[in-house]
Amino acid sequence: MTSVPRSTTVAVVVSHAIQHFAPLYRALTEHEVDLRVLFLSRSGLERYFDADFGLDVQWKSDVVTGYHHEFIADLPLRPGWRQPDVTRQMVTRTWAALDRLRPACVLVYGYRYAHSLAALAWCRRRGVPALMISDSELLGQRTPAVRAVKRLTLPHLMRSVSAFLTIGDNNEAYLANYGVPATRMFRTPYPTDETALRAVLAHRDKHRTAIRAELGIAPDALVALFAGKMISRKRPLDIADALRILTRTPRGPVDREIIVIMAGDGVLRATLDAVAAELGGALRMVGFADQERLPRLYAASDLYLHPAERDPHPLAVKEAVLCGLPVVVSDRVGSTGPTDDVRPGRNGRVHPVGDVDALARILGELRARPDVLARMAQESEKVIGDIELAASVDGFLRAVAHVRDTARRG
């Protein structure tokens, strides 16, 4: 694995503590990277109300442990971030912290917010290399006006970034579209809490049996899982409609019973509860699943479903693959590609967004073909080495080494 000198200070400027990045920060610190994470807000550390889930959410307390960090401000998250006085504080606090640290390079998360642009401006003024990571892709629909503005502004902005930590094939296609050469891209898959997943997978059969017994699901049933916010953008109702089609279709002699577990909450929950009652057991609503319960649901499942109309790179899809599950997604989910989490024709199937009949056909085939499902699961196992935390650490270190070498030559 690539290494960088301990004297290389890398500053990370980020809005707030994001749980799934904490494992990467800790792993980099263990690799003796002098990482300094600068947070603009304490939001998320305490219990807060998530409007999409429609309930209070509490992250694990260790989200800020195991790595150097500081809160350079305690600003409110959206919508307050659009206010002029908040924007000014973002800029001044970011510049002051970077002037004090004098890092060898700076990582920012995208370009949407003032603190990211302020960090890029600081890097440009001080001649310090800038790194960027984002989940941008070209799959989402954009108005002609938005596309025109991006075409005019983004190539210039991208040239100010020394290296990009890319998360997948669609993300790299987006960057290439705006002029970023492959030599400045370093694959750094989104990290997640793999420790919790591996702890469950070490006793997979036990958790599979326990969850199925708890939910009254037969051991030989084909169980598909959806986990996420029950909002229109995620299109969980497409899964319910596909189940309706399957329940109206007579089962063949080898067709397994198919049951979908839905974990999550949101504005569509009441509608989905009504559909679940109508389907008589084919749809099981289990509510919000925390970091302890969700890995057990992956262990109990045979397949993961994600029919969203736009989702740049959902963590639930990655976690499903890390658990060795085949995945079925819509063509608007950005996790697809020959070297990404979901590899069509191998560990995944892709259907046109909103095409419930196509989704039902895929599910119908998989419940009748356990051999196909087993091969897809084997392919997911092969993908794990490309997307696990070690790959994220390696991509980060290669990007830092690249900008250091480039700075020395320049």
From TrEMBL:
A Pfam family: Glycos_transf_1
Keyword Transferase listed: yes
Top-level lineage group: Bacteria
UniProt GO MF annotations: glycosyltransferase activity
Position of the signal peptide: none
Protein's name according to its UniProt entry: Glycosyl transferase, group 1
Domain (Glycosyl transferase family) ranges: 208-382
Keyword Transferase attached: yes
CDD domains xref list: GT4_PimA-like
Keywords for this protein: Transferase
